[in-house]
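Minutes, structural biology subgroup

Action item carried over from last meeting: produce the structure token record for 7-carboxy-7-deazaguanine synthase (Paenimyroides marinum). EB confirmed the sequence was re-checked against the source entry. Recorded below for completeness.
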Amino acid sequence: MINNSRSNEKLPLMEAFYTIQGEGFYTGHAAYFIRLAGCDVGCHWCDVKESWNENLHPTIAIDEIVAQAEKHGKLVVITGGEPLMWNLDALTSQLKQKGIQTNMETSGAYELSGFWDWICLSPKKTKLPTQSVYDAANELKCIIYNKHDFTFAEEQAARVNKAAKLYLQVEWSKKDEMLPVLIEYVKNNPKWAISTQTHKYLDIP
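Output recorded by EB:
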């Protein structure tokens, strides 16, 4: 359930850092990442499971989060955990008032809140996106762990809005096995593009 009352003033923050976006449409762009804590989607291959329990992380005033973001360029990516567990209207409104571009990475499992320049929807089988996120997503990024995930990706592509850019990305631990399969799939289905976790090749956060 979205906690509207607490998130209007503070948000549970796992970490925030300035780096290069490694995935999707904005690959290669400098960005300040705000990783909010809290997630009940439960992806077994999640590489930030320490973000799941929001009670293990401090709640930080939105004003303070924005003040830190303002020091690091003009592009912010809000991620998680699952950021839409929280009402993001206040955070994104303040960021935009500072002239900062607001991007989000979400599973879409909760109703959309916030004011966004770009939404990357990365849906998960365990808790499917809400229609509000399907309708607003700028890009659809589906993670390929096994061959069945191509079927899931096509199901999600049929539900997302027609303007969304479509990406397939191999789950990192499966890249040796599944990347050749993904390459052939995209060659045969060119509506998709490949997203690569370039930040891992660059050895940066």
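Discussion: The chain is about 30% helix and 25% strand.
Next step: EB to file the record with the rest of the batch.
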